[in-house]
Design a protein that fits this description.
This protein has 358 residues and is of the alpha/beta class. It has helices at 9-20, 48-51, 88-101, 146-150, 206-216, 261-277, 281-306, 309-319, 322-329, 336-346; strands spanning 2-5, 25-28, 43-44, 59-69, 75-86, 105-107, 112-118, 121-126, 131-134, 136-139, 159-168, 175-181, 184-190, 195-202, 220-224, 227-230, 239-240, 243-245. The structure holds flavin-adenine dinucleotide.
């Protein structure tokens, strides 16, 4: 018997994968409605195809190019293999429906409070006063994971602030705009040519940076969708006494792009493998995504924490070369290490940025 806390994309994907392999699964979600409130841009790479079948019930738009702007306003445009923009409420609900069709039982309005181990089982306590017993406990309960806190697995995690609004604007429907500048990383992700998700992430002053970007890309604010994103921490303990952490709860997020949906779903598949085979979950997920998450973390540290305006402008100028844009087009940003190595081989001037690593 497995209890999963959190019906986000990662908990739901895990529930489906485990049920397919014969496990009995209960998913506990604190909210009444799965997928709400939305605190995400919903941009995923083409890699989503390898994990599930993206369909129009939750894909609101498809993207085929990106334009990246530096602080001086100069930009580079790059063609992309198809990226998906998902409606997070519908996406999460779809994944939950798939899990339910394989036999997972869902319990909404169940906010996990704490757990303790008694013999071979965990007793779970919920804020609504209910309790439950389980053999295996999984925390898929997001960045502030109560499962991690209750089981001494929270560690020293750090967060980035994601401040985002849905806005009414005019934009190209197939183009994601990114803005890189000192102190923040911004985006304009179109749902259509009239509605977009405009947001920034930063370590501090989110309102200041959002207002700056909103000035560049004005539009009527329809809805706020802000939240926090855990910075990947390779020291996070993700497996202890039959308690497991996955997704944001385990800090499995790409620190350079702040995408957590795909790495979390990949880790869920590794947890399934571990529970089926008896192998170490931590070993399996680190083997599949640990190195790439670490490379994303290095990029984050270099760019968001150490670059100055002139460094971003230089970077854009180097990337503008057609041989570099072509290379980026053909690589998946889930796996940046190979791309970075090839970029340095094609254009050794990229190596000047490695001084920010120390
Ligand atoms: C502004 C912003 C933009 C982002 N944009 C992107 C993007 O474009 N692409 C991308 O890939 N990632 C993006 N992310 C990151 C992405 O949202 C997360 O990585 C992803 O949602 C992780 O999924 P998860 O299932 O691990 O956690 P979550 O989606 O956080 O789901 C956790 C679930 O657990 C529930 N829960 C929490 N605590 C409890 C409790 N105590 N008891 C019961 N249930 C509980 C929550 O209600 C929620 O349903 C963004 C994040 C932010 C903040």
């Amino acid at each position: 018997m497995v209890a999963i806390i959190g019906a986000g994309p990662v908990g739901n994907h895990l529930a489906a994968e485990l049920c397919k392999r014969g496990f009995s699964v209960d998913v506990y979600e604190e909210h009444k409605v799965i997928g709400k409130p939305v605190q995400c841009t919903g941009l995923t790479t083409f890699f989503l195809n390898k994990l599930m079948k993206p369909d129009d019930s939750f894909v609101v738009n498809r993207i085929s190019r990106t334009q990246v702007f530096g602080p001086d306003g100069k930009s580079v445009e790059i063609a992309l293999p198809k990226n998906y923009i998902v409606d997070r409420t519908k996406f999460d609900a779809h994944l939950a429906t798939v899990a339910q069709s394989h036999g997972a039982k869902y319990h909404s309005n169940h906010k996990f409070l704490s757990s303790e181990r008694q013999g071979q089982q965990h007793t779970l306590h919920f804020v609504n006063g209910k309790t439950s017993k389980t053999d295996l406990l999984v925390g898929a309960d997001g960045p502030l994971s109560a499962v991690a806190k209750s089981n001494g697995m929270y560690g020293q995690r750090k967060f980035i602030i994601g401040h985002q609004a849905r806005i009414k604007t005019h934009c190209a429907e197939d183009l994601v705009e990114f803005f890189i500048d000192e102190g923040y990383f911004g985006w304009l992700v179109p749902e259509s040519n009239k509605i977009a998700r405009l947001g920034i992430c930063s370590l501090d002053k989110p309102k200041h940076y959002f207002d700056k970007l909103h000035h560049l890309r004005p539009g009527k604010i329809l809805e706020w969708q802000s939240g926090i994103i855990p910075l990947y921490d390779p020291k996070t303990v993700t497996e202890k006494d039959h308690v497991y952490l996955v997704g944001d709860a385990a800090t499995q997020v790409k620190a350079s792009t702040l995408g957590g949906i795909i790495p979390g779903m990949m880790a869920a598949e590794e947890l399934t493998k571990a529970l089926v085979t008896g192998k170490s979950y931590e070993h399996l997920w680190k083997k599949r995504i640990g190195f790439e998450l670490w490379v994303h973390l290095l990029i984050h540290k270099m760019m968001l924490q150490r670059f100055h305006k002139e460094d971003y402008n230089k970077l854009i100028r180097l990337v503008q070369q057609p041989r570099i844009t072509k290379l980026i087009t053909t690589h998946d940003r889930e796996f940046p290490s190979l791309l970075l190595a090839k970029m340095a081989l094609l254009e050794p001037r990229f190596l000047q940025f490695t001084r920010f690593l120390w």
